[in-house]
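Input/output pair, single chain:
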Amino acid sequence: MKIVIFGSGGVGGYFGGRLAASGEDVTFIARGRHLRAFQEYGLRVESIKGDFSIPHVSATDDLTSISAPDLVIVAVKTWQINEAADALRPIIAEHTTVLPLLNGIEAPALLSDALGAQHILGGLCRIFSHIAAPGVIRHVTAEPYIAMNEQDNRESARVRQIHHIFARAGISTEIAPDIAVAMWTKFAFVCSTGTIGAVTRMPFGVIRSVPETREMLEQAVREIIEVAHAHAIALPEDAFSRTMTMIDNTAADATTSMQRDIIEGRASELDGQTGAVVRLGRAVGIGTPVHAHAYGFLLPQEQRARGG
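Output:
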């Protein structure tokens, strides 16, 4: 299968690396020092699941050199979706499938509008990983996992084929019976922890153990679940307890990518995560005070990071 990884950071670099190591035809879209390292030295993955290196990888920043891929994995930040869609449009063939692996919940709809819904799957991943150095991806905690399906939850032949390829690469993969539920379940975890972590500048172990911040964290989870229900997402009755169990079982020193970006003064997924909760809540008349206050508190820094 001819695979393009659009966004070769912690997520795209790790999963693309696994696919390339298993013998798939993978091209990484990267830029700057990361791209030059790929081209000169290949890709190295440092992982709690075992380190591995690929001395020679296909990597470029020129999409005109690519034609008609079978699968495109989009692993950019939420605020880069429109840019990604514009860049990908010329290489999307009739048979091309696009799998978004982003932290937010709006990517399938946005990519469907831009590229055509027939090309777009619903998808998510779970992994704590980042670029440790140009050409080096470091996976630090959590079992790497992908869930995906057609947006209408129809288990198609292409979904089964992609599942088989991922499994052959040693990637824990599930064809989700309800991909919207799976995506909102992840969103309740990553957005709540990222939002409270960004405000406090503290890792999981701190925000879940201090009573005052744990209360904020719990309320953030409840707000997301309430918004999901109002949008007719059939989250289970125990969604709150499941989410808190996941949070409590995550490594104490873990942080989210949005939190790290905000702390380090970079443009972040604030709008695609915290802002999305506020936006989607307002659309159905649901108040989200924890997310609204956090969004307002963090927005000036976000605007500065974007040059505003």
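The CA atoms of residues 73 and 99 lie 5 Å apart. The first strand starts at residue 2 and ends at 6.
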